[in-house]
Amino acid sequence: MYNVAIRTDGGPGIGMGHIMRCLSLAREFRRSGKRIFFICKQAAGIVKIIEEGFEVVRLENESPYSHSGSDLEKEADNIIKIVQAEDIKVFIIDKYDISADYLLKIKRHVKKLVYIDDLKKFIYPVDIIINGNITSTYINYEKYSEDQHLLLGPMYNLIREEFRDLPKKKINENVRSVMLTTGGSDPDQIVLKFLDIILSDTELTSLKIHVIIGNLFTHVTDLKKIELQNECVILHENISRISEIMDQVDVAISAGGTTLYELNACGVPTLAFVMADNQEFLVEKMHEKGYVISLGWFHQLEATMFLDQFKVFMKDHKLRENMSERGKKLVDGRGVERIVRYIDNIIESDEISSPMV
């Protein structure tokens, strides 16, 4: 057995996506008998990790958004001290504010350095790159070295174990319910805007709207007022198994990100919108492949245009059936199993080829 550490963050400004997918991976490492802990800066992410029963080491540097070379160098020095003190063999990084020098500095002190990527910002000097997005097949990764490992595509997607082995979803002729989500945060109050549009349409008064409230929502009071005033609005806070909500609803309206993979795993026909730059390529490619229907950028979406598109979507039973069947084949919820097994095999192979003397 070996020790694993994960460097990631979650909180206002960056959301909780990195935290959630790293927790999925951490649970699989723990199941396989490894000691695993997190290294973080931001309080919101730390709270969630502790709730899930994992250790957290908080970095001294209190500037989670810093991109300067000196701050990254200081962070790398702090990480190296932790790595040496805790005898870390596998170090995993899931954050965007990195540099080649930062990665190289840490790489010298661990057996395997792993980077979870979405953007391909430069040639990563790491041992393993994980990109579980369908967009990874469009990225031409240039290897840092011949022995660098690339774990690419949806078979390595980091969605949680609750999305494994789900039954086929029944697609009803009539749409009676919709799930509305922006993920863990909603800084632009997009949920409120969607609710205002849907509730203002007299043709949609019978539609049940299941609203997912993320950990970082700042306008919960406003949402609760809307729930009190409208029987059709149902708020869901602190959900432990979001797949149960997805199983209940007929369709979904969702921001880009990990949630789109979860909805596909559940077979939920989905209208997807973009609320951040790093979601645009994913939503575009999922739309091209027929896994979602893209609404484009939310700030460019007009109410009338959305309502027209939503109603056409609701009425097209065959389209929704096809989307559900296609989505079920996209991800199987076993990506973290494959990743941990792959890393285990690499570590074992290295130990066999370099026996202790």
TrEMBL record:
<dbReference type="GO" id="GO:0016787">
    <property type="term" value="F:hydrolase activity"/>
</dbReference>
<feature type="active site" description="Proton acceptor">
    <location>
        <position position="18"/>
    </location>
</feature>
<feature type="binding site">
    <location>
        <position position="262"/>
    </location>
    <ligand>
        <name>substrate</name>
    </ligand>
</feature>
<keyword id="KW-0378">Hydrolase</keyword>
<dbReference type="InterPro" id="IPR020023">
    <property type="entry name" value="PseG"/>
</dbReference>
<dbReference type="GO" id="GO:0016757">
    <property type="term" value="F:glycosyltransferase activity"/>
</dbReference>
<protein>
    <submittedName>
        <fullName>UDP-2,4-diacetamido-2,4, 6-trideoxy-beta-L-altropyranose hydrolase</fullName>
    </submittedName>
</protein>
<feature type="binding site">
    <location>
        <position position="160"/>
    </location>
    <ligand>
        <name>substrate</name>
    </ligand>
</feature>
